[in-house]
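Hi there,

I know you've been waiting on this one. I reran it after we fixed the sequence typo, so this is the corrected version. Both the input and the resulting structure follow.
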Amino acid sequence: MREDRKIAALLFVNFFLIIVIYSVVRPVRGALVVDQLGAESLPYIWIYTALVLAIFVAIYGRLIDLVSPRWVMTLTATGFAVGLLWLRYCVLLQFPLAKQAFYVWGDVFSVVMIEQVWSFTNDVFDTETAKRVYGFIGSGAILGGILGSFGTRYLVGRVGTYRLLDVSFGLLLVLVVCCYLTQKIRAPGGAARSPQLGFDGDAFALVARQPYLRLILVMVLLTQLISTVIDYKFNWLMQLQYPYLDDKTRFLAGVNAWINVVSLAVTLAVAGPVHRYLGVATGLLFLPVFNLFMLGLAIFVPGPSVLTGLNLGDKSLNYSIYRLSKEHLYIPTASEAKYKAKAVIDMFVHRFSDLLGAGLILVVAVRYLSLCLAILTLVVIGMSLLVARAYRAKVGETGAEIALAPEIIS
C-alpha cells in the first residue's frame, strides 16, 4: 500500500508538470501562429504534426524493444527539453518556419508525454489498485492545467508572450528529474498480471491483428477529428475578436483555465459515481452526447457563445471523464499493448485525426461543418457502445476485474 501511494504521488506530479508546461505552451504557440500566420494556416500545420508523429511512433515501437519501457519517459522528456531550447532561439530570432515548428513541438510534446505516463501507469497498477488511484493521478493533470492557465494569463501581461518560453523550459527540466525518480520505482503487480499476446511485431501490426484494439482506434480517431474541427472554429473566432498578440495569449490562457476547472469538477464529482454505478460505457458516452447537443444548437442557433461553450465542454469532458474511461479500456490488455498499441492509438491516431480534420476543413464549406460534425458524432456514439461491449468481453476473457471507480486515493 505504501509503495502504491508513493508511485501514485510521483505520477500525480508527472501529470501535473506535463500539463502545466502544455498550459503555458499552448496559448503561446496558438497566439504566435494565429497572430502572424492566421487561423487558415492551422490545417496545414496539423498535417505536419501527423507526419512527425507517424515517424515518431515508428521509432518509438522499435525503441520499446531496445530500451526498457520504464526508462523511455526520462529519455523522451530529455529530448523534448533539448528541442524546446533550440526552438526558443529559433522563434526569438524569427527563423523561417520556427513558429510552425514550435506549434508542432507543442502538439507532439503533449500527446507523447501524456500517453507515455499513462502507459507506465496502466502497466504498474492492476485493476484493483486502479480503483483507488486513477482519479487521484488524473486530477494532477487537471490541477496542472488550472495553475498553468491562470499563471500564464497572469504572467503574459508582465513578461510578455516570448518570455513564457523560458518558463516552459525551466519547468521541463524539473519534469525530466521527476520522470527519472518515477521510473526508478516499480509498483507491485502491474505488467506481471497482464496477459501476454505472444506477438513481437511492430506497433501498427499489433493494432491491426487485434479486433479490440481496432475498435478503440476508430473511436479515438473520430472523437479527436471532431475535437480538431471544433478547435479550428474556435481559433477562427478568437482571431476575429482579438487583434493583438498578448491579448490572444491572455484570452486563450483564460479559456484553458476554465476548461481545466470544469474538468476537475467532472473528475472529482461525476467520473467516480458514473463509473461505479453506470459503467465505462456511460463514461465514454458523456462527450459525444454533449457534443451532439451543442452541435444541434450551433446549427440552429449559431453564435460566438454557443461555439465557445462547445469548445469548453468538448475539451473539459475530453480531459476528464472520457480520458479516464478510455484508460480503463487498456487495463485488461497485455503490457505490449499498453505501450506499443497505445502509442499508435493515442499518439499517432490522435494526431492523424488532425490531418483528417484539416482535410474536412479544406473541403467542406464552413456553414456545413457543424452538420458534418453532428453526423460524425452519431457514429462515435455507436462506436462507443461497440467498444464498451468488447471491453466487457475482454475483461471476461482475461479474468481481470473491471476497474470502474477512479476514486481519490485513500
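Quick highlight: Residues 187-201, 399-410 have pLDDT under 50 and may be disordered.

Best,
R. S.
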